[in-house]
Amino acid sequence: MKSTTSNNHPKFERTLVIIKPDGIQRSLIGEIIGRYERVGMKLAAMKMMVPTAELIEKHYTLDPEWRVKTGVKTIKGYTDKGMTPPETDPLKVTEKILRNLVNYMTKGPAIVMVWQGAHAISIVRKLTGGTEPLTSDVGTIRGDFVIDSYALTDQDGRAIRNLVHASGSVKEAEDEIAHWFKPQEVIDYRLVQEGILYDVNLDGILE
Length: 207
Ligand code: GDP
Ligand code: MG
What we know:
Elements: E1 14-19, H1 21-25, H2 29-39, E2 42-49, H3 53-60, H4 66-80, H5 90-105, E3 110-116, H6 120-128, H7 141-145, H8 150-156, E4 164-166, H9 170-180, H10 194-198
Antiparallel strand pairs: 1-3, 1-4, 2-3
Helix pairs in contact: 3-5, 4-5
Bound molecules: guanosine-5'-diphosphate and magnesium ion.
């Protein structure tokens, strides 16, 4: 059988997912995990905790560019809609977003997980859906289970409640996994179904 076990095979890709406090309060733990599980992803690590402000602030600022990128993106969001942004300085915009995020993410238990599988980062993002539930695709977690919007959160001065976080790139996934887990907490194991997902010749089916 042709081997698919070399360490750089795409099936070893990992991504970090957090079921945010609203996901838990909405009783969606099983539904969310089920969506990643049924596509063929493998759960490699999981813990439940009430995140501290320090952990959340660090999580969102692991990328030193995140503050500027998020500020610029948010300001563009306002101007694209013909609206005036509340601030012109991207860093001030992000400071407010970060404060609201810390407030939201530390308010109750969250579940932090590592999911593994081919194209884990893109597949998990596809199933998760776009950031703003108002425009997330139907069929995604954020599109199917929550109704929030930036219009609502801006009016009420809070973070968008979109149920889950999922890493957006290989670099982000690596940094976030290292931020939330010790290496020994992420388990290397084989799932029986990986035969049907990845074996080259499907040699193990017929007796
Ligand atoms: P994600 O990867 O889909 O979770 O989105 P990002 O990484 O771009 O943003 C992280 C978090 O920052 C989001 O979950 C929002 O809470 C917040 N955020 C991002 N962009 C915006 C925005 O344009 N406006 C507001 N109010 N918050 C935003
Ligand atoms: Mg992100």
